[in-house]
Amino acid sequence: MKYISKNFQFPSKMSDLLQCVEELPMEPVLSELSLKAFRGGNQLPIWDIAEKDFQMQKEELVVPLLLQNWAQNDPRDLLLRLGSKQICVNRLRFMCYSKYAMEHLKGGQRELVLPEDRVPPEGLVRTCKWMNDPVAKLERSFIMQVLATALYLEIEPLIKQVWFCLDMVEEFSEDQAFGVSYEAHQLGNMVPMLGLDTTMLHRIQRFFLTLVASVEFVELPLRHVRCLLSSENVAVNSEKEIFYSAVRWLTHDWTARAQHTATIMETVHLMLMPREFIIELQSPSTESAPSCIIQQNEFQQLIYEAYSSHTLMIFNDGSKLFEQLYDIFKIEQPVPRPFICHDLCPYHRAKPDDPEKDFTYDDFLRYLGIIQASGPSNWKTLTVQQNSRSFKVPKEESLPSSESVSLQN
C-alpha cells in the first residue's frame, strides 16, 4: 500500500478529486467459484473420534408417536358399501384386521363394495363395532351374521373368538344352540360350513319338546328334523313322544311331505314303543295316528319290522340262538333316550321304569299347548334323571376347528 507523501496536497476542487481517484490502481479480479468447487470443500474434516459417538438416539420413537396421533384423530377415511347401506371406518385399522381388505384395497382407494349375497348387513355393523373395540364381549344375537362377515372379510381374530364361544357347550344353553342352528340355516351360503347347523341341534336335550311345540319346528327342513329325531340326546318321557313329533312335522304340510314318511319314521326307535301301541298302528282304523300315515305301505313295513324286533327283544334269553337271529335280521337294540318328567303333563310317568301311560296324538297336542302357555323358558325347570345317559356329541358332528373353517372359506 502506498503512503501519502509529505508534499501531497489535497485537491481543492471536485474535478481535481476525481482525477486523483482515476490514478489509483484497480483491485485484483477474483474468479467466481462455488463452494462445491472448492478443493476438498465437499468433504467433512477427518477427526480422530470413534464413529459410534455420532450414533445419537432419537428422543421419541416414530411408532408410538404414530399410534398416538392415530388414536387422537382416528379418521373414518374408508367407505364400505353393502347395497344401500354405507359405513365409514378407519382404513388403516380395517386393513390391519382384514386380509380381504389388504388384498383388495389398492393405492389410495377409499371405497370398498361388498356383495350382499355374502355379507349380512347386521353382521357388518357389528363387525365394524368389534374392530373399534376388539376386547368387547360378543352378544348371542346375530352371532352367526358376525361369523359370516368375519369369514368373508378374513378377520382371523374375530373368527376364533366366535368359534370359541360356539364351542362352549356348558355355557351355551340349548335354546341358544337352536337359535344358532336356525340362523345358520337362514343365512345359507353366507356361512360356508357344512354341519354347523346340525351340530348345534345335537346340543338340544330338555328343550326338545318346547321346540316341538313351536312353529319353528314344523318349518324345519327335512335334514334338520331327521337330525333332531335321531339324536340320542333329546329328552322325552316316552319314545311315543318322538313318534308323535314326527307325525306333527309330516302332517303340517302333508301334500309336500308325504314322500318323506319312511325317511322320518326311520329315525324313531319304533321297537322301544309299547307293544300294544305297535299292534294298534298295524290297524288301518286306529285313532293312535292320522290314517294318512298309517295307510302308507312303507310305514306298515316299518311297523312290521318293529313288531318283530320287539318280540325278539321280549323273548331274548341271551342264548347264542338269539344272537344269531339278531345278526341275520340285522337288529340293533336302540338305547332309550334321556328321561324327563314334566309335572304339567297329565300322562308323564315319574320314573323311566314305571309302566307307560297310554296317550293319543290329541293328548300329545294338548300337552304342547300347555308348554306354549307356560312360556319358552319353562323347560329349564326339567331335570334329566340320573339313570339316563349324559350329554353326548357324535364324533361325526363335532365342531371343526377355526383354522379349517378359514380354509373352507
From TrEMBL:
InterPro entries: BACK, DUF4734, SKP1/BTB/POZ_sf. It holds the Pfam family DUF4734. Residues 181-282 form the BACK domain. This is Kelch-like protein 26. It comes from Drosophila hydei.
